[in-house]
């Protein structure tokens, strides 16, 4: 093997590596495709993200094949075109489809996707689909390529054969990653709607992820906050209690509960529970411990009163006045205080409360308050 061949093979290997690197970093696809273009050949604007160049010169090989100006082909050219299409139609069409599909993964080049993706798809892939429908095989596709000066020589076709399986595999991997990312974003969005703080920890007790409510609750160094991806309390003693709670859940597979005192508010309540990859919960199983992690739910009783008049009316078919009365009771106010807050007489307030009892199937204020909190305080209103 000569030095030139060895260098080319090394460069192709590097390019294959870049293809898989672009799967993990989709923003690399544009420059990866341009690098592929430099290997395959053809006019630069065929592979780049800029607009088509005005009146580009044809590829010299296309000129030699009779592709001049208005693109008339002689009979010999047509015979060559037929043979070329028969041999390489499927390879070229497959390769171009994979290249164009790869372009779509670039999330930061929307304008570029429109320029390259739509232009090339309309010019070549639609042409290819139409030609197959009308029984012309790939002749029209190849003719369109030749007309634009994109005639691939044997070396380019060989590179296509080498790169096509890797582009195919990369496209499949990218689709799976995109689906997994979508699922993760949906789950994250759902957990961010909870009024409970949710924090995931790995087996060392380090934070993996937290939802929006957890970040808001654990933001007071005088009570509870995150430091170096770990949950810490106001002092060494409370921090040690937090670490023991998490350790017990992660390493010993034992749930636990901890109250974190605050100076001027009701205590925060933390509930820790073990999680295992694949649903395995046997702490004696070594493979189970390797995938161990834990979850901590943080409840702030002073942040849970997020029910609204609209939500109460929808849930229990209450009138506006009845909903205001139910909210006052759920917030711990007595009947007289609720009447004053709503601007009604105590007798009217009592009548409204009886209507609320009937519609919610409750019989006293404590039961009503518990029902409202259980039903309507789990989701954030923002």
Keywords:
382 residues; 3 domains; three-stranded antiparallel sheet; alpha+beta; Beta-Lactamase; five-stranded antiparallel sheet; Arc Repressor Mutant, subunit A; single chain
Describe the protein in words:
- With 382 residues, the chain is α+β, with helices and mostly antiparallel strands.
- The protein has 3 domains: 3-185, no CATH class; 193-301, Beta-Lactamase; 309-376, Winged helix-like DNA-binding domain superfamily/Winged helix DNA-binding domain (Arc Repressor Mutant, subunit A, Orthogonal Bundle).
- It has 16 helices and 8 strands.
- The chain has helices at 3-24, 29-40, 44-47, 60-64, 75-103, 110-133, 139-147, 154-192, 212-217, 236-250, 286-290, 309-316, 320-330, 335-342, 346-360, 365-376, and strands at 197-202, 207-210, 219-220, 224-227, 230-233, 256-260, 268-276, 292-299.
- The strands form 2 sheets. The protein has a 5-stranded antiparallel beta sheet. It has a 3-stranded antiparallel beta sheet with strand order 3-4-5.
- A hairpin with a 2-residue loop joins strand 4 and strand 5 (230-233).
- It is elongated and about 105 Å long.
- Residues 50-71, 130-135 and 286-290 have low confidence and may be disordered.
